[in-house]
Write a structure and sequence with these properties.
The protein is mainly β. It has 2 helices and 13 strands, in the order ββαββββββββαβββ. It starts with a strand and ends with a strand.
Length: about 190
């Protein structure tokens, strides 16, 4: 099973910008294991103030050479040290065939455009996994990732922005605390 970036120009064309993987055809570029930090930008004051969901479209291809059953996908947000500022939700979309050989999925115009043909749900933990079902050898399905900001966590964390760096109460010095600009989320896929 291999996850591929998507592209609108044509089946198996190269996709050099992972953040532009907005649905369409399977590109020639696959997603490296444990490399999901390439899709969404840093969390900045601008992205927080705009608070817009972001979407990425991927294609999952069954490259096992045989049928797989009970395929499912879910996310795992590792515990501390940093509290996550965002949530990644998932949706599965059947792909269509445009010319009898090349499949494609819905595509959106911008990273903030919501796909309309897919239900995207919270999928944190295997108990909330999104079902892909049975996949024949070579079959492809579309996978949508949605990043939503957790504003209550961000707001609470931003209230704690400085720390005292001198023990003296007479001339106290403070420095800004380093804050996370990205979250770590794992996307898990299983099948039998």
């Amino acid at each position: 099973m291999i996850l591929y970036l998507t592209i609108t120009s044509g089946y198996d064309d190269a996709q050099s910008l992972p953040s532009k993987s907005l649905g369409g055809y399977k590109s020639a570029n696959f997603v490296d294991n444990d490399n999901f930090g390439i899709f969404f930008g840093d969390l900045t004051q601008y992205t927080i103030s705009k608070n817009r969901d972001e979407y990425i479209g991927l294609i999952l291809k069954n490259t096992t050479g045989s049928e797989v059953t009970v395929a499912k996908i879910w996310t795992v947000t590792p515990p501390d040290p940093a509290v996550p500022y965002s949530q990644i939700d998932l949706g599965v979309q059947l792909v269509l065939t445009s010319d009898g050989t090349n499949s494609f999925m819905e595509y959106v115009q911008t990273i903030n455009s919501k796909p309309l043909q897919t239900t995207i749900d919270q999928a944190e933990g295997e108990g909330n996994a999104v079902s892909i079902g049975t996949m024949t050898a070579g079959q492809e399905v579309g996978i949508w990732l949605r990043r939503s900001l957790l504003l209550s966590i961000i707001s609470a964390d931003q209230d704690d922005i400085v720390e005292k760096i001198t023990p003296s109460d007479e001339h106290s010095l403070y420095q800004e605390k380093d804050k996370a600009t990205e979250d770590t989320v794992q996307v898990m896929i299983s099948y039998t």
